[in-house]
Amino acid sequence: KRTASQAAGQRLDISGIYPPIATPFTEKEELDYHKLEENLQKYAQIPFKGLVVQGSNGEYPYLTEEERVEVVSRVRLSLPRDKLVMAGSGCESTRATVQMTERMAGVGADVVLVVTPCFYKGKMDSRALTHHFTQVADSSPVPVVLYSVPANTGLELPMDAVCRLAQHPNIVGLKDSGGDITRIGLAVHKTRALDFQVLAGSAGFLLAAYSVGAVGGVCALANVLGRQLCELQHLCVEGRWEEARELQWRLIEPNAAVTRKLGVPALKQAMEWFGFHGGSCRSPLQPITESEAQQLRRDFSSNGWL
Amino acid sequence: KRTASQAAGQRLDISGIYPPIATPFTEKEELDYHKLEENLQKYAQIPFKGLVVQGSNGEYPYLTEEERVEVVSRVRLSLPRDKLVMAGSGCESTRATVQMTERMAGVGADVVLVVTPCFYKGKMDSRALTHHFTQVADSSPVPVVLYSVPANTGLELPMDAVCRLAQHPNIVGLKDSGGDITRIGLAVHKTRALDFQVLAGSAGFLLAAYSVGAVGGVCALANVLGRQLCELQHLCVEGRWEEARELQWRLIEPNAAVTRKLGVPALKQAMEWFGFHGGSCRSPLQPITESEAQQLRRDFSSNGWL
Amino acid sequence: KRTASQAAGQRLDISGIYPPIATPFTEKEELDYHKLEENLQKYAQIPFKGLVVQGSNGEYPYLTEEERVEVVSRVRLSLPRDKLVMAGSGCESTRATVQMTERMAGVGADVVLVVTPCFYKGKMDSRALTHHFTQVADSSPVPVVLYSVPANTGLELPMDAVCRLAQHPNIVGLKDSGGDITRIGLAVHKTRALDFQVLAGSAGFLLAAYSVGAVGGVCALANVLGRQLCELQHLCVEGRWEEARELQWRLIEPNAAVTRKLGVPALKQAMEWFGFHGGSCRSPLQPITESEAQQLRRDFSSNGWL
Amino acid sequence: KRTASQAAGQRLDISGIYPPIATPFTEKEELDYHKLEENLQKYAQIPFKGLVVQGSNGEYPYLTEEERVEVVSRVRLSLPRDKLVMAGSGCESTRATVQMTERMAGVGADVVLVVTPCFYKGKMDSRALTHHFTQVADSSPVPVVLYSVPANTGLELPMDAVCRLAQHPNIVGLKDSGGDITRIGLAVHKTRALDFQVLAGSAGFLLAAYSVGAVGGVCALANVLGRQLCELQHLCVEGRWEEARELQWRLIEPNAAVTRKLGVPALKQAMEWFGFHGGSCRSPLQPITESEAQQLRRDFSSNGWL
User: Fold this and answer.
1) Residues D251, D256, D258, D263: what is their CA dihedral angle, to the nearest 10 degrees?
2) What is the pLDDT of residues C119-138, one digit of tens each?
3) What ipTM describes this predicted complex?
4) Which of B9, D23, D206, D220 is deepest in the core (most CB within 10 A)?
5) Is position D71 within any domain?
6) Could you say which of C205, C212, C250 has the minimum Cβ distance to residue B207?
7) What domain range includes position D219?
């Protein structure tokens, strides 16, 4: 069992770059496992640390429970063993999250990414969230990564909860998509003694996150420009900051376009341009309009990517 | 079938007061149908127009799909036929909402309450939401009520979408929990020609909503002070505004306590004080603390309810 | 001196409708006292309770101290004695507000309207604001009205501060422009024993505010449709709610257009259409565009006002 | 005159660290020029690029116009000529800002820092702000630095306005206090061809800002730990990122304490502990409480500064 490493006092090394993979659908909005497989074979050629399956960009809230587990299973079967499968197992209730975590571990997830529950956001304070993540980590067969993504959830995992949870032997890190670099630096600083790993949740601040001590990134843009993000990571790790900066600058606008500005439908459109299967989204997500597609193209082309 | 009335060009009359009923759990967080049944028998004695099952206060995001349907089924079987069962059938994806709507109608829901999807809130614009609600209403066997609750979802159903959707023959109204009374007045004004019905989503602005043309309310506080809210409705409908105002004033603080300030756990605690079964919530919702309980009690007692 | 009434334990009656008058400028952005005078003569014919001078719509942050005082002086000289002059004397610092209040009272202001300071909004808690308003009210020669306008200031005067300040003998009321009707009802309820008067800060929720106990309104739209707002007030006071509602509905969109949506430049444009002098704003406020002007016109014409 | 350099096509070099100096008051809230002078003599010993006078931390909204100019004058007279005086000349109206800019330049300011006007925040779009800053820069005798500080103003200078304004020959840079590192990187990237200089507006993200191309910082914390911030700058400029990171980490919590968490009163308290004159603030700013002082001390001591 993977958690044996844990017993030995060593945490799973999660440093590196991960694309939070998009989920391809057919025109009738059914899962398209064939296209998924083709994407996976291309991703296997890129020096990613692993893949995030069912992150926000995977449209996981639009999948059934069965589909969520099935996608993780297929990814694990397809992907070389040396790549990590980090599976998004978060649900609104603690009990559902515990069960989903077990199921995903059961089909081969190496580590789970657990988003903050958010529907009752007014009540999701440190106490509630610490309780939630502790319950999940206590029962999880695999290591847990905390996931804070305020743009979608409307709440941030409080820093005091991060610090407390970082002490849990089965919680190995935090993916922070909020982009508050001061907070990311503080999370690293406050958990230094704990072998706790912080991942940037977006390509827009990947270099800056490395500069304050993050060890990797889960970046939507890695679905499209995966090699470039691995190169950026490489430059940061090597301390070649000048070159890293030049590359980082050119990634900001494409990244904003496929995330904050135009979202998953734009990410999927850009994937098509770069040789991957993107396709349409499940409703209520709508395809981007013609003028949005032009704007998207401009954000890539003006930075030399198209 | 009720929708026959629709064919005849008449919309279902949804005017009146509804408690969005809380869902009782056992200590092990299992559904407690026995306690639910006892609550229902008490609610049947109060002149409610009906019950909302799986509104925000019903912890529906914490129930499995099976549980969501089963609770609706039990409520319909228990409740007298002259009371409406308004069932919350909203899910994140359009396809899941369509299916859940059909299942809930299948077990006897008279009308469904469909919340705005919200996970990809940056993309949930008028276009996406109009498409979503149109798809759901097209296929729903029962009338649909739109549901905007920004405190939980982080987004408001845009007014232009409300106006367009109000023209759909199977969309009969809007539950607005945002509390922006100007917006509620405008929604009534812009849909006057359409026999579209607006319900206040909270007891704090019930009188004010009536004053600008709303026809009822779905009020968490009705789980606790149901008769008083029906009395407030009665006074408003009769035009006895002076008396209505006196009553409204005394309901603001208790209502805030069980909603915005302390949430569902406080609602359930207050239910216990007033002879109903509240009990605990599912995790990650936590019980209120001792000091919160004192504050809660004060908000009721200082207004003469305890 | 008016405050003699105060010594007698009676507070100044501020109930009724007030336009927060716009400040006319010449093309070179100089104050145009001639146009101001002409507006005042027209306003004197409308059954307003008085005028608010240097409310948010008066562009007071763009006037020098001298100009602020001079405008109040001119208005007082021009306006019949039976109309109140409510002068906006708020500044960022307490000492400046104290001085401005004295100067405005010195040139004839009957009552002052004091906005919450807001630059250090993170520090403007109940403690700081209670201290500020108490200092101002202690030294003010005329009664003080509290002013909460979150759209401009980014903060709301906390309810506990309102309740505490309502006990001050020289604080007679609150103008609340936030539009949270639950809060307005609560402010009335919590200060009932104190002869404290709440004014609605916008025409969009005037009827609703009356329905929960407000006694008047300071409404930007009264610069344009002053008679109609006085008529709405009359209907509310008389308890003719059906008629009031019909009128209220037709005022929502014009009001939103000249406030939240298009702001002071639109208010001034609409004034021109209705026979008043509006003119341009001081920079950085820009004139509305052609397409905004069309939208503005539509918001008036579709409701039967143009 | 310094702007001669401008005619020669070279912009003023503003790279480096600046404390936005606090303004000392007597117990009666009068300006205390003696204490100011003593602080200045100490600051002159630290390798700052210069001082910001009347930044947000200088309580400038609480000073009269005369006081604002007088403080700038005194600072210029006291400070060695090789240190820049960057004076905050922003007012709400364009005309007042133009005048204040001239006056401050007249008493020796080397460069002015102009905050976004913010009272009518709903109308302060790119068009209005571009117009405002262009007017100011056109008439300013000294170079202009744009200043975006959303925590106080409630608005951010839009990126398209930054890019357009960066082309103005008399606008040399941007101080960005929002802390959105992606935006800071983008501002550098989009203005690279223009010799436009970006300064971090807070010590919490100083290293990260350097990592993406900023050239300095205006940091409240430099009033207290000025040498350390100059050391951090030195490490960044030298590319000694490992050491820089260690130092950056220890500055995050003290910085947060004197800015976002506890504000100017805490900054002034901390100044006292470190041998400077802080003293009290003008009302309505209140002194920190005893428990806040303990928290403040902890944020310094737990990072090894006290």
Assistant:
1) 170
2) 999 999 999 999 999 999 99
3) 0.95
4) D206
5) yes
6) C212
7) 4-247
